[in-house]
Specification:
The protein is about 60% helix and about 5% strand. The protein is mainly alpha-helical.
């Protein structure tokens, strides 16, 4: 699972036709001149939509929701603020901790792994999930009763937490919400 998956979820939820182009990251295809013309940071994913080029998965998702998402981007400023708040929280507060867990338990060569760092990050991730649990109290979804792009964005990161074995026993609202989000066709297809 990678950040590009977050944008695949958004594309699926928007119901637009799309073409995925796989890049061989081991061969550094994302650092070659043709790709760098589209995305000077050399990161993945990059969306090309006609003359519009957007990179960074969260920016891609917000763009897709605005342009194609029908009801995925709420119309009220207060609900859009929740979209931005929780989307940014997911990638700044929760995701970095999960990356640390993944790196030190899966990705790095055995000799370079640091289980103490992984365990600390897992504990911090579980604490962050408490924040999300509180935010979901009394709500079916993060913006209220309707599924929106923020549920895609945060749901993708919570899927990482699930895969990394983060303790979710103390977050019943997150478990309830993620069961609903994870049962959507887009999530089932990605998983």
């Amino acid at each position: 699972m990678n950040r590009g998956g977050r944008s695949v979820l958004a594309l699926e939820e928007c119901g637009v036709t799309y073409e995925l182009r796989d890049l061989n990251l081991q061969n550094q295809e994302h650092k070659k001149p043709d790709y760098l013309k589209l995305n000077p940071s050399g990161t993945v994913p990059t969306l090309v939509d006609g003359d519009t080029v957007v990179w960074e998965s969260m920016a891609i998702n917000l763009y897709l929701a605005e342009k194609y998402g029908k009801d995925l981007m709420p119309s009220s400023p207060a609900e859009r603020a929740l979209v931005y708040q929780w989307s940014l929280w997911a990638i700044t507060a929760l995701e970095p901790r999960l990356v640390t867990v993944f790196a030190n338990r899966v990705m790095l060569p055995e000799a370079e792994r640091n289980e103490k760092a992984a365990a600390a990050a897992a504990t911090e991730a579980a604490q962050q999930l408490q924040v999300l649990d509180h935010g979901l109290e009394g709500r079916a979804y993060l913006c209220g009763e309707d599924f929106t792009i923020v549920d895609v964005n945060v749901g993708h990161v919570v899927a990482w937490a699930n895969l990394m074995g983060i303790d979710m026993s103390g977050v019943p609202e997150v478990r309830r919400w993620f069961e609903s989000v994870g049962s959507r066709p887009s999530f089932r297809k990605l998983m």
